[in-house]
Amino acid sequence: MSIEIKNINKSFESKKTSELSVLEDINLSIDDGELICLLGPSGCGKTTLLRLIAGLDHPSSGEIIANGELVKKPSGDRAVIFQQYSLFPWLTVLQNVTFGLEMTNKNSKEENIAAAERYLTSVGLIDFKDSYPHELSGGMKQRVAIIRSLLNHSPILLMDEPFSALDMQNRHKLQEQLIGVWKRFNNTIVFVTHDVDEAIYLADKIVILDKNPGRIAEVIKVNIERPRKRESQEFIKLQESIVEKLDMGD
User: Is the distance from CB of 165 to CB of 83 less than 8 angstroms?
Assistant: First the structure.
């Protein structure tokens, strides 16, 4: 599903001034099946823009079109994965992961369980499949929530720094899994991050935002062949270039 962001402005009421401009004149086209990373410093409006695309907030002016329809409210076609995990406390890990599949998937229960177990194995959680959320660490809960969202295969995935609380090993594993799901199901993905390495590893295009107010500073097309190697010269060169751009913007 494609997304068109047209002339978006977003302001909030402020105690210091009459209103605080968070996003200004945002125009962006996201093609069907494209993986976009929103990158920028804290306070540049990345999460606000993601919430507008999700229909969780409304712009002060402008419009967002998803799959030809004006975004006015949340939709099952646009799944949102936030930094904070949200699990059903009365369900086990396996039941949490397969919950959405049982609602929407035509496969048998056995096939859904097998798919869930493959994902849980890959992130080291298969031994906890019968555990409840209160028995897990924070990082483990986040991995479960991410696996659940990946398995639901919504056409549009909106992800707000979902891997930031994880250790590097699991973060890299889930980045690889996200690429695998994206390639297989051709999701359109908008991924918020402040991590330059993560943005280069994942994105077709990186949208760099400035702050005060949030504006699109630059859109960078990542022309590095997948699977991408972080130690490659082209990866390192692009990383250094983007870090320099971000430093100049601070």
Answer: yes
Contact between 192 and 160 under an 8 Å Cβ cutoff? The reply is yes
Tokens of 99: 């919950």
Give me the pLDDT at residue 73, please.
93
Q: At 10, phi and psi to the nearest 5?
A: -140, 125
Are 115 and 147 in contact, with CB atoms under 8 Å apart? no
Tell me the pTM.
0.87
Q: How far is CA 5 from CA 31, 54, 64, 119, in A?
A: 11, 12, 5, 33
Percent of the chain with pLDDT over 70: 95
**Residue carrying structure tokens 């999700």:** 54
60: helix, coil or strand?
A: coil
Place of tokens 């798919």: 115
Q: What are the tens digits of pLDDT across the range 63-80?
A: 999 989 999 999 878 888
Q: What are phi and psi of 173, to 5 degrees?
A: -60, -45
For residues 166 and 150, what is the distance between their CA atoms, to the nearest angstrom? Answer: 16
Instruction: At 164, list the tokens.
Output: 């930031």
